[in-house]
Design brief:
heterodimer; A: alpha/beta; 7-stranded mixed β-sheet; about 40% helix; B: about 700 residues; alpha/beta; about 15% strand
Chain lengths: ~625, ~700
């Protein structure tokens, strides 16, 4: 298998040294022009990873083995809301990519279901528009489109739903015949899978042929119950708990749900109750932050390295910040956004999940259940957010950019919906008592970034000569340009004694040069097909995370708290800095360096970009308007 | 004839001014960086003004052609131009003979070419990297200082390879005072010396610097004599004093009096107080340690060491105060004297004590025991890393650290150094001084401040808490012939063909204090080993009670590579990006100095540069104290004596191998598979050689998982 294909244009003897770096001419050229002027002394393992990578770049064969999805899997993906935005932007392109890169079986079936009446042909044209990319061969697209079908109908219409199911069965039967899998064999596979305790077969086990139906709910949450009910109604469950999850034909059904999962604890409970006809194992609640490479890496970093693990506590860590910034406003999403706001949209799910991974105790193992238990524990230990520890903001017009209320999609022109929120949470356990956990999210800010910053205490009892030194900081940047770096103090090389903050980094872009990091959606869809729950949110977690935010959300609504205004493209409301000051920080977040500058380490780019003249004048105008920020007043 | 002399003067001075003008023109466009280097430029302007005064009036017309020196060029070129300029009046004053005159002209031409080259370089570099070279332009030594350097054993290996080239380089870069005087002293030609007189010495200097010495050679003087010959040294000192007096006169003439107005730029050194001009005389003993005592005696008898004023002073606290008082009361004309001694400082505790006793007539605060490893950038950085970062500081104890290794490896054998080496062996040559000093910096507690005194106190404390090395914890080896090189006893310079001198040693030391109890400190050094490397490896424990899925993970390691290619890196475990969820691999989080140095300056200061300047600046931070010498010998002396008494044979290992196998046994005794971490040899992606690759793969298999580099 290793010999399957060699890099073109260079004769390389085999076996290669473990330290050998296979580089084709273009790679060499690229490396030279990337100005890796420092000859990298790569450790062996790194080198291995490189050659490993080049191998996986070589053969399609190898790719398949990387996928958690068995090659024998009989998979069907049904997308509800197939004409919607999410399907268009994420689901269909992701499915196409997976299919194109052979990470899913070639005979995958894709069904669309939506209210719009369409024929298969029209639907395929729609998909074609979503997935078209000039660099990809026509053949791939054609092949994929042939796998796609469509059924139109209302989401609670049992007739249309029954028709869909019939159609599914027809196509699946045809595929079974083509694959030459007898129902007996499949039943055996199902038994095997059930025996092994999971609701999925062992990963990559070639002997198992199981049939999986993935229902992707790309629709508003209030429709979930209707759809799932209709799907279940068709097949009256036989007796016995087992048959609950496996239809009589031995099909695993998996339901993928998208956020928002309710608006508060009560509505979340209702939603959970409505879906009680599904078993918890069948439900995959997507939080695509959990599929991000660096979020998944957090656990390895923390628990495989004594150098992080030993200092991961309140004695060393001063605060933890989970930051999400976007440099654009709500744009077309105003209708949805105005109903939810950024706390529900980002803080309560994405940022809280990341925070849970940062502060959870070591799990018994990395199985989905053990990790979930630890996350649950730490969420229980987090006290509900109070209004004092929260700053909300809403962006206003600045220059050519529209303010939130000016967006055409925002209908309520008197809306109090927040587009910025900074919250400080506290985790009450021996490890974290007294450490503020900052969750900050905002739209229409200076730049686009998601990162975790772990800020350490200054060295206690430091030598006087080093008293001016900055504290250490560990930064995990989730996007853009994945990086992990330490900010450490170092002597500036030279004759004089001068100490400077520099970065010790692990820039993914340079370390894994040739590797394309898998996208969150790709990874998560594969996980669903493979039946792995680790990177999904359980109902318990969901309820607990709502319990942290519900009280304050209710209070905001009840008191009609006005969000503090901030100009489009600024750093956010000034109230956030006041909140930061209260917790001993100058401001939330670190530097504002653009991602490109991030390649070069140093203190310079940590310095904050000065606000543009426009933003500055807008800030001044806001401050002098007499509209004092409500949160500061309080 | 006078007319010929003045013509020559006119010619050289004209050229020099022309060069200055050229450099100035090119510099105009870089006004921003010129501001940053304002003090450099003001020095240059000042000197140019001084030159104007000194020049005969008929040259003024020449200088009028050059544009007014409003903005000066970057400091290198200004220094070079300066050089050319100041050489000219000197020649005129002395009424140069014809031969010298041509040489002077040639020097001036070289200087101009140099200035031009530097200017071009600085222009092209400015495009790549617009940061001004601030870092290196800072010097601990006041530029206005009157400095005199006297090198004993000036024809020896050390001065040839290290001291003289370093001095020339520092001088050209403007880091040494411009009118520094360099004196060489060595045995006469008949008695083992190779240099006859000053001219010879100048040639020698320019050969040492492979031709780049340029005008620096003109600052060099030479005298021969035995090292214990009081009269010859008296003659030397007379010459030194004479030329120092001349220099003072010429400085006054040029309007650069003892009070120098630019010294305020040298703040940071207590020596460079704003209104004084320090006069420093440094005696550099690049001679065998046997003659240190007689050399020091001869110097003292000739009135060095403050003319014997302090002969009877003892190094006590009270004595220090008296000394300080005495120093204050001394007239300003007196020089500060510094005595620099190189290793070896004796062979064992007794001989070291004897040496210290023999040199006790020198005031202890003027004696600098040189250990050039302490001048290495990364060794100096250790303290900052440890004490300015909670990320390192709080891990720095026995709970987190499993072992500390200080490793010195050289591919070369002893080569020409056999005569010296055979007497000492690698334990005395490298381990007892360099490696032990590095270890002390790693293991010491936090000092009260980063002053020399406090750092030395803490180092002393930790050295005193190291238990003397036991023979069980020591492995010694000697390299033998192999296809890669000849064996130690086959070296031409090794006289004793049955020598049991060790060329490899691995020792495990224990520090008995609460922080380090139970942590083995490995010192390993060897000649004729696979690679050239000096590094410090701090190896951490595995994660206690690790999650099941991560049990296979390696432990963390912090590596500080001192040479080659300075770097600091963490070896951390990281998830391999990709779809596999539990694939973990070891990666490096690094801080490559080559990148860092590029951002800050063009060049990283070399250990000798830094240390020589610090001697002149009277900064003891990176020198060893006499007490430390004693403490470090106490660690090794018992084992060294036992080796000798029992006639322990070093274990043979082939030249170019990893060292004797017994070292691995010792490593296993302390729970390590082997000493050292081992990186893959660097295979340049631009220079793929299939043969080399397949060969190294074979060696990996032989050498196990963490294989070291195979023989080159």
């Amino acid at each position: 298998r290793r010999l399957a294909r060699r890099p073109r244009g260079r004769i390389v003897p085999w076996p290669l040294a473990p330290g050998a770096r296979i580089m084709t001419f273009s790679a060499t050229w690229a490396a030279r022009h990337r100005q890796t002027s420092t000859p990298q002394l790569l450790s062996k393992s790194e080198d291995c990873s490189d050659s490993d990578e080049s191998r996986s770049e070589l053969g399609e064969e190898v790719r398949k083995t990387i996928s958690p999805v068995s090659r024998k899997l009989l998979g069907t993906v049904v997308v509800f809301g197939a004409d919607g935005d999410l399907a268009k932007k994420k689901i269909l392109p992701t499915l196409f990519n997976l299919w194109r890169r052979k990470l899913v079986p070639r005979d995958l079936l894709v069904f669309g279901y939506a209210r719009t009446p369409m024929t298969d042909e029209v639907f395929r044209k729609h998909i074609f528009k979503c997935i078209y990319h000039p660099s990809q061969p026509q053949g791939d697209r054609k092949g994929f489109l042939e796998r796609c079908h469509y059924q139109g109908g209302q989401f609670d219409d049992p007739v249309a739903m029954a028709e869909l199911l019939d159609q599914l069965e027809r196509y699946e039967e045809a595929r079974r015949v083509k694959r030459n899998v007898t129902p007996v064999e499949q039943a055996a596979a199902t038994d095997l899978a059930e025996d092994s305790g999971g609701n999925g077969a062992d990963v990559g086990d070639p002997g198992v042929t199981q049939q999986v139906r993935l229902y992707y709910m790309a629709v508003p949450p209030f429709l979930y119950a209707g759809i799932c009910g209709a799907l279940r109604q068709k097949r009256q469950p036989m007796d016995g708990p087992l048959m609950d999850s496996v239809t009589e034909s031995g099909i695993f059904e998996r339901f993928v749900l998208e956020k928002p999962f309710g608006k508060d604890t009560a509505s979340c409970k209702v939603l959970v109750k409505q879906l009680s006809m599904l078993r918890e194992e069948e439900i995959f609640r997507i939080d695509h932050y959990l599929g991000k490479e660096l979020v998944m890496n957090l656990l390895v970093l923390r628990f495989a390295n004594v150098c992080f693990q030993a200092i991961w506590n309140r004695q060393h860590i001063k605060n933890v910040q989970v930051i999400f910034k976007e440099d654009f406003g709500v744009e077309g999403r105003g209708g949805y956004f105005d109903e939810y706001g950024i706390i529900r949209d980002v803080l309560q799910n994405h940022l809280l999940q990341v925070m849970a991974l940062v502060c959870m105790e070591q799990p018994l193992s990395f199985s989905a259940e053990d990790i979930r238990n630890e996350k649950l524990k730490v969420l229980r230990q987090t006290s509900p957010l109070t209004l004092d520890n929260l700053v909300t903001g809403q962006y206003v017009k600045c220059g050519e950019h529209k303010g939130y209320l000016d967006e055409p999609t925002v209908l309520n022109k008197d809306s109090n919906t927040e587009t910025f929120a900074a919250a400080v949470l506290h985790v009450h356990n021996p490890r974290w008592e007294g450490v503020p956990f900052v969750l900050k999210a905002g739209k229409a800010l200076t730049d686009r970034k998601a990162e975790v910053r772990i800020q350490f205490h200054r060295v206690p009892g430091v030598v006087s000569a080093l008293a001016d030194c900055q504290a250490n900081e560990l930064v995990v940047r989730l996007q853009p340009e994945e990086t992990i770096y330490w900010k450490v103090q170092n002597k500036v090389p030279g004759l004089n004694f001068e100490v400077q903050q520099i970065r010790m980094d692990l820039l993914y872009a340079s370390k894994f040069q040739m590797r394309k990091l898998p996208e969150a959606y790709e990874r998560l869809l594969l996980d669903v097909l493979a039946g792995q729950h680790s990177n999904f949110v359980s109902a318990d977690e969901l309820l607990l995370s709502w319990e942290i935010f519900s009280p304050v959300l209710h209070q905001l609504a009840k008191d009609k708290v006005k969000p503090e205004l901030y100009p489009y493209g600024s750093r956010g409301p000034v109230g956030a800095d006041a909140l930061a000051n209260r917790f001993g920080m100058q401001k939330f977040g670190g530097g504002l360096h653009p991602a490109v500058e991030g390649r070069v380490a140093g203190p310079k780019e940590e310095r904050e970009a000065p606000p543009t003249a426009e933003v500055a004048s807008a800030m001044r105008a806001l401050n002098t308007n007499g509209r004092a920020p409500p949160n500061v007043m309080r | 004839p006078a007319s010929e002399v003045s013509l020559a003067v006119a010619f050289t001075a004209g050229l020099a001014l022309g060069a200055l003008g050229l450099a100035l023109l090119s510099q105009r466009k870089r006004s921003a960086s010129a501001v940053a280097e304002h003090h450099e430029s003001s020095v240059a302007v000042d000197k140019a003004a001084a030159l104007d005064v000194a020049l005969p009036s008929q040259l003024k017309s020449n200088s009028a052609r050059a544009p007014a020196p409003a903005v000066a060029p970057c400091h290198e070129s200004s220094a070079a131009v300066d050089t050319a300029a100041t050489e000219a009046p000197e020649i005129s004053q002395r009424g140069t003979p014809t031969g010298l005159r041509f040489r002077a002209a040639a020097d001036a031409a070289t200087a101009i070419a140099r200035a031009r080259r530097l200017r071009e370089n600085s222009d092209t570099e400015a495009e790549d990297d617009d940061e001004s070279p601030v870092t290196l332009s800072w010097s601990p030594v006041s530029r206005g200082a009157c400095a005199t350097l006297i090198i004993f054993g000036a024809d020896g290996n050390l001065s040839q390879t290290r001291v003289l080239p370093t001095l020339a380089d520092l001088w050209h870069r403007g880091l040494l005072p411009h009118d520094v005087l360099v004196f060489g002293y060595a045995r006469p030609v008949g008695a083992g010396g190779v240099i006859a007189d000053t001219d010879d010495f100048r040639d020698f200097v320019s050969r040492c610097c492979s031709g780049t010495a340029g005008a620096f050679t003109r600052r060099c003087h030479y005298m021969t004599g035995q090292f214990d010959d009081v009269e010859a040294i008296g003659r030397l000192l007379k010459m030194v004093r004479g030329l120092e007096a001349d220099r003072l006169v010429s400085r006054r003439q040029k309007g650069i009096p003892g009070r120098h107005r630019h010294t305020k730029h040298a703040e940071g050194g207590k020596h460079g107080e704003a209104d004084t001009c320090p006069r420093v005389r440094m005696y550099y003993a690049a001679v065998p340690s046997l003659v240190y005592a007689s050399l020091a005696m001869a110097l003292c008898e000739n009135g060095a060491a403050f003319g014997g004023v302090r002969l009877d002073m003892q190094p006590s606290a009270l004595g220090g105060e008296i000394l300080a008082a005495a120093e204050r009361s001394l007239p300003r004309d007196d020089v500060e004297e510094r005595f620099v001694f190189e290793k070896p400082f004796g062979r064992d505790t007794e001989s070291c004590t004897q040496l210290l006793h023999d040199l006790s007539m020198l005031p202890p605060r003027d004696v600098f025991w040189m250990d050039h490893y302490l001048g290495k950038e990364l060794v100096m950085n250790l303290l900052v890393l440890r004490f300015a970062n909670i990320a390192f500081g709080s891990l720095w104890n026995r709970h987190a650290i499993k072992a500390v290794q200080v490793i010195f490896k050289e591919t070369r054998g002893v080569e020409g150094r056999g005569g010296y080496f055979d007497q000492y062996g690698i334990i005395r040559d490298v381990m007892q001084n360099h490696l032990l000093q590095m270890m002390a910096l790693v293991a010491m507690e936090q000092p009260l401040s980063l002053s020399a005194e406090h750092i030395r106190k803490e180092k002393l404390k930790v050295l005193q808490s190291v238990a003397p090395l036991e023979l069980d914890d020591l492995v010694i080896g000697q390299y033998t012939s192999s296809p890669h090189g000849c064996g130690y006893v086959d070296e031409a310079s090794v006289q004793n063909k049955a020598s049991t001198t060790e060329t490899f040693a691995a020792a495990v030391l224990h520090v008995d204090n609460p922080r380090w109890a139970g942590v083995p400190f490995v010192l390993k050094a060897g000649h004729g080993i696979t690679e050239n490397k000096v590094e410090l490896r701090v190896q951490f424990h595995r994660v206690p009670g690790v999650v099941r899925e991560l049990r296979q993970c390696e432990a963390n390691e912090l590596v500080v590579r001192v040479q080659p290619e300075e770097a600091i890196y963490w070896k951390v475990q990281n998830k391999v990006p990709g779809l596999k969820s539990n694939e973990v691999e070891q990666m490096r989080m690094d801080l490559l100095y080559s990148r860092l140095a590029k951002r800050h300056s063009r060049q990283m200061p070399k250990a000798y540069e830094r240390l020589l300047l610090e001697v002149l600046a009277n900064d003891h931070s990176h020198f060893v104290s006499a007490e430390e010498l004693d403490a470090s010998w106490r660690i090794f002396t018992p084992a060294l004596h036992q080796l000798q008494e029992r006639g322990v044979q070093p274990e043979p290992y082939p030249f170019g191998s990893r060292g004797p196998a017994a070292a691995d046994d010792l490593a296993r005794k302390y729970g390590m598979r082997k000493f050292g971490g081992g990186l893959t040899p660097y295979i340049s992606p631009f220079n793929l050689n299939p043969e080399a690759m397949s060969r190294s793969s074979k060696e990996y298999k032989e050498q196990g998982e963490e294989g070291e580099a195979g023989p080159a």
